[in-house]
Amino acid sequence: MRLTLHVWRQKNAREAGRLVHYDVPNANPEMSFLEMLDVLNEELILKGDDPIAFDHDCREGICGMCGMMINGLAHGGMRGTTVCQLHMRHFKDGDEIYLEPWRALAFPLIKDLAVDRNALDRIIAAGGYVSVPTGSGPDGNAIPVPKENAELAMDAAACIGCGACVAACPNAAAALFTAAKVSHLGLLPQGQPERYQRVTRMTAAASALGFGACTNIGECEAACPKQIRLEFIARMNRDFLHASWTSRE
Ligand code: SF4
Ligand code: FES
Q: Which tens digits make up the pLDDT trace of 71-82?
């Protein structure tokens, strides 16, 4: 299949970027999107041109490293799919495809399609852990967890930290990411001692790092490759309100 790519090229955060046009005359429909970019990059290198920078690691949809806007949609807009799991068979011969990096104040551009998502790690560092002694491996049944809570916690823990929710949000809010991290610990017994301190610290960190405020638009849920649900934001907000009220008492 023949494609035309328009790729955002930008050497670094200080220099201006622009869309550069590339012809891809022979993309194989069975290739993944990143493999198609690999082939283009090999051709660029052979011609002595600078290859297109983009992030990736596992290429199995589990590490959260890949991510870019494809035709204006985070990860390409296919439900529950990271860009590394997106295949060229979902495009048509003759398609024009626009590739841009995540755009958010808290994600400074590194080069081309690669941005620095360290801010998400810093939100986790602010409270996404349990610091109570958990001891050595306890008996499996020693800490009973209601089935519903266990399943909800696992749903929240599916977040891979890709940042698509931020990129898709008109406010560049990290609410879905933060809510997933707050919830997966807050739903389990081991996460209870620091539950309210955690939500206060992580939401404050998100705000201080330059992420916007959530206004319930819902683009994050639509863009999330792990289908993290908006209800986790509601859960985080309830915990945040509880923490605020109890700190005033
Ligand atoms: S909530 Fe979804 S979109 Fe946001 S970082 Fe986690 S996996 Fe990515
Ligand atoms: S490269 Fe790991 S999720 Fe895409």
A: 999 999 999 999
Which whole number is the average pLDDT over 42-51?
97
Using a 6 Å CB cutoff, which residues line ligand 2?
A: 56-59, 61-66, 82, 84, 160
What is the best residue among 37, 63, 86, 120 to mutate for testing ligand 2's pocket, by most ligand atoms within 8 Å of CB? 63
Provide the β-strand partners of residue 19. 8
Distance (angstroms) between ligand 2 centre and the Cα of 62 equals 6
> Which residues have any ligand 1 atom within 6 Å of their CB?
159-165, 176-177, 180, 223-226, 228
Nearest atom, ligand 2, residue 57 CA: 1
**What tokens appear for 13 in the block?**
């955060």
- What 72-81 contacts at long range (C-beta under 8 Å, 24+ apart), as own/partner pairs, is 72/98, 72/100, 73/168, 73/223, 74/102, 74/164, 74/165, 74/167, 74/168, 74/223, 75/162, 75/164, 75/223, 75/225, 76/33, 77/223, 79/227, 80/225, 80/226, 80/227, 81/225
The SS3 assignment for 116 reads coil
